[in-house]
Amino acid sequence: MLLSVICFIRVSGTSINKVQDTLKANELILYTVPSYIPLDWSSPSSLMETSIDSFIYSRFSKKSYSIGHMIIVLNSPLADSSVKMAMRSTSNREKINLFIKDGVGMGILGAPMQGRLETSGEIDEFLLLYQQRESRKISFLRYVLNEKSTSRVIEFLNLYSGKSKEEYQPYKLYGGVFWPRYENEGAGCSAFAIATLEVAGISVDNPEWYISVNIPGDIVGGPFNNGRRVKGVDIEYAKEWHNGNGIPEKDFFPYKVYDPSKIYNWINTIFSNGSEKYKPHSIGRIKGLTYDAREIIPEMNEPIILKREQPSCFVTVLKERVK
């Protein structure tokens, strides 16, 4: 019996070690921070009111995000070093001008803006602060990947950041309806983070992670709706979302976004109640979940960057600006 065990270990030892090494080597961590004040998505008016409150109060707190935030950290020997990325808009002034000066109304949810990637130094400083302060809300999703998934994630991040093609720089564009896997589109912080999972072959179709609403056409303005000017009072009277009956991008504007707050709450629920696939995990004081995804093999022949099939006026305006 002992001899048989020894022979088995000698024959299969390489594969065992490889699995163990992979467990330690390839990890994708998505940190998520909820909005400073909980956003109320029950209606356009409640969303506007809570968004404004969150924006104002977050100004008094260091390194806080009024609508939440997500950060990508990839640790793998396939990369030169630990890869840390996060999307953000470059200016709050641009948001204010779009809403007040241009009168885009709730079109602000999908409006294209200038964006940038946060530096590794910024992310390190942010994570250190949130690690040290118990009052800061933050959680994470940690995925253990195989080498095929990891290589695709690295390829995607290199493309998106302009590292592999200097002329391709979608990270300079920020917008709520953009999907970073679509050609020449940027992303919001959550879309960028969640897209890395999709690239790795992991399903992201979890309704508990995203918000899906139809924005009434009469509260979308600016270049997205024939120059219509929408005032704050117009949104105050909008007490419900559109029911979806009518012509898209005329009577209503479909909108879907992965919400850092929903993801944060979902993580904490699973952490407390348990799950078959997601296991409780902690990094310092920060609580999160680990998913062993090494058995998930992505479709290697699928292009990293795809063509958008569903048209969007927000993307159309973006392309007109880029020309």
Strand order of the largest sheet: 3-2-1-6-11-10
Please compute the radius of gyration using only Cα atoms.
21 Å
- Tell me the distance between the termini: 73 Å
Helix content: 25-40%
Main sheet: strands, sense, barrel: 6 strands, mixed
How many helix segments? 9
| Low-confidence regions | 1-22
Q: Structural class of the helices, strands and pairings?
A: alpha+beta
Backbone shape: globular
Mean pLDDT, all residues: 90
Domain tally = 1
Q: Proportion of β residues?
A: 15-25%
What's the total number of strands? 11
SSE run: HEHEEEHEHEHEHEHEHEEH
Furnish the topology, listing elements before pairings.
Blueprint: H1 2-25, E1 27-33, H2 44-58, E2 69-75, E3 83-85, E4 87-89, H3 92-101, E5 113-117, H4 120-132, E6 139-144, H5 147-160, E7 173-174, H6 189-199, E8 210-216, H7 232-236, E9 252-258, H8 260-273, E10 278-283, E11 286-292, H9 313-322
Which key phrases capture this entry?
six-stranded mixed beta sheet, 323 residues, three-stranded antiparallel beta sheet
Short précis:
The chain is of the alpha+beta class and 323 residues long.
Describe this entry's structure for a reader.
The chain is an alpha+beta fold and 323 residues long. It has one domain (21-91, 113-210, 258-322). It has 9 helices and 11 strands. A 6-stranded mixed sheet has the order 3-2-1-6-11-10, sandwiched between helices. A hairpin with a 7-residue loop joins strand 2 (69-75) and strand 3. The radius of gyration is 21 Å and the shape is globular.
